Amino acid sequence: xxxxxxxxxxxxxxxxxxxxxxxxxxxxxxxxxxxxxxxxxxxxxxxxxxxxxxxxxxxxxxxxxxxxxxxxxxxxxxxxxxxxxxxxxxxxxxxxxxxxxxxxxxxxxxxxxxxxxxxxxxxxxxxxxxxxxxxxxxxxxxxxxxxxxxxxxxxxxxxxxxxxxxxxxxxxxxxxxxxxxxxxxxxxxxxx
Length: 192
Hints:
By secondary structure, the protein is mainly alpha-helical. The protein has helices at residues 2-14, 18-32, 35-47, 53-65, 69-82, 90-104, 107-124, 128-141, 144-157, 161-173, 177-189. The longest helix has 18 residues, at 107-124.
């Protein structure tokens, strides 16, 4: 890892290219989680017209870390324009909208979050976190039946203490107290 970084820096000293800049940007995100350094290199790539989905993807990741959700969304949209089959954008866009909904409780944000999370499932298949995220949104919207259905689907896929807690919360809101208590107990005993 360190040798790889050393070679890349040396290469940049010899000749500054967008390929080396891209490599360094990606390196700083994936290995060092240094989003400031990564962004500096990736922004140069963008300025020099490196029209590559991964460049925009990593810039979007930086924008998320910098707490600039609108800019992150615009970069994720660029990725999807260039490569509609890019697997990691839709759920990230859904989470950005979910986070905006969590802060404001504006239903239009929840609708956008659900749209992107549903698109992720339709286009690329399901994974357990989609159930968790949608369940949380449905709980916050007061649609406890849908929240419960999402948790049950997620728990059919895998045991997960967070889903058991969400299920308990949904059951409690539906006045199904005994079942709610059992769900909360399952969350304690779950080994995830």
